[in-house]
From TrEMBL:
Residues annotated as the enzyme's active site: H68
Species this protein is from: Urochloa decumbens
Upper lineage: Eukaryota, Viridiplantae, Streptophyta, Embryophyta, Tracheophyta
Similarity section: Belongs to the peroxidase family. Ascorbate peroxidase subfamily.
UniProt-recorded Gene Ontology molecular function terms: heme binding; lactoperoxidase activity; metal ion binding
Cofactor requirements of the protein: Ca(2+); heme b
Protein name: Peroxidase
Length: 328
């Protein structure tokens, strides 16, 4: 009985710490614009339908923009800012040189500004567009908590230092994800986004040529698949050639990515790394059976919401940019 007062004292402290850690996330809410811009998500979806209908291959890049935004300074649309004479912005960092879809974001934002001036943030636009890109690529939907504000700082150096690299192994990737409040399950689930899109040769050529002193190519890469990739990627310096990250269905959001990874045919070293950890390999092999698509779809939505909460600015923090590529 004597321990009860101690518990009473400790419980509020624990709740206070928990509340502090999740305060920003709690300030995001589904339906945030219900009074200030009730048609916001409808406007985004209508424009996204036109964008993806005209260019289905943009689904992957638009999803990727949200990823690359959230891993640097949190989900604050800093990835969209242009460089200036005195600052090199995130979008011009080496890992972001291949990002696409900026024009589509500007197009959606312009529609929102016409309907609801100075109301919907660029950070929220990215989150909604990412969800809609997945839906329009025949993937799952999920409610997107909204209320993010836009940041005013964008650094190419920070992007280079903080984005998960294509050559990452499990210890490095786990560290980067953990620093953003994401765990191993989020890592293997969000890697499933590689079911959409293409990649430039330099991002995986290191697995094909001069891999190490003992091996010319990465021994963890299926040799037949490596031969096929070499026919497209003639050298590590080939910046023009693209390869599908999920061969045969790179415009469709499905579970075939996991089947490729399970067969040692993941394009990146970070994909292959999923087979080196007990937790991630179990998930890969389970989803690869094709019997648990609904599980992956549910998990992906949950991990996307979790990632979308990373480092968000809310309330009076940041600003609502009028144009996503420049601060007000």
């Amino acid at each position: 009985m004597a321990i009860k007062p101690c518990l009473v004292l400790l419980l509020p402290l624990a709740l206070l710490l928990l509340a502090g850690s999740s305060l920003a996330a709690a300030q995001l809410e589904v339906g945030y614009y219900s009074k200030t811009c009730p048609n916001a998500e409808v406007i985004v979806r209508d424009e996204m339908e036109k964008i993806i209908s005209a260019a289905p291959s943009l689904a992957g890049p638009l999803l990727r923009l949200h990823f690359h935004d959230c891993f640097v300074r949190g989900c604050d649309a800093s990835v969209l800012l242009n460089s200036t004479e005195s600052n090199t912005a995130e979008r011009d960092a080496k890992p972001n040189k291949s990002l696409r879809g900026f024009g589509s974001v500007d197009r959606v934002k312009a529609k929102l500004e016409a309907a609801c001036p100075n109301t919907v943030s660029c950070a929220d636009v990215l989150a909604i567009m990412a969800r809609d890109a997945v839906v329009l690529a025949k993937g799952p939907s999920w409610p997107v908590p909204l209320g993010r504000r836009d940041g005013r700082v964008s650094s190419a150096t920070e992007a280079a230092d903080n984005l998960p690299p294509a050559f990452g192994d499990i210890p490095l990737l786990t560290k980067i994800f953990a620093s953003n409040g994401l765990d191993l399950k989020d890592l293997v689930v969000l890697s499933g986004a590689h079911t959409l899109g293409t990649a430039h040769c330099p991002s995986y050529a290191g697995r094909l040529y001069n891999f190490s002193g003992a091996y010319n190519s990465d021994p963890t890469l299926d040799s037949e698949y490596a031969d096929r990739l070499r026919t497209r990627c003639k050298s590590a310096d080939d910046t023009a050639m693209l390869s599908e990250m999920d061969p045969g269905s790179y415009k469709t959001f499905d579970t075939s990515y996991y089947r490729h990874v399970a067969k040692r045919r993941g394009l990146f070293q970070s994909d292959a790394a999923l087979l080196t950890d007990a937790t991630t390999v179990e998930y890969v092999q389970r989803i690869a059976t094709g019997k648990f698509d609904d599980v992956f779809f549910k998990d992906f939505g949950e991990s996307m919401v979790k990632m979308g909460n990373v480092g968000v600015l809310t309330g009076a923090e940041g600003e609502i940019r009028k144009k996503c590529y420049i601060v007000n």
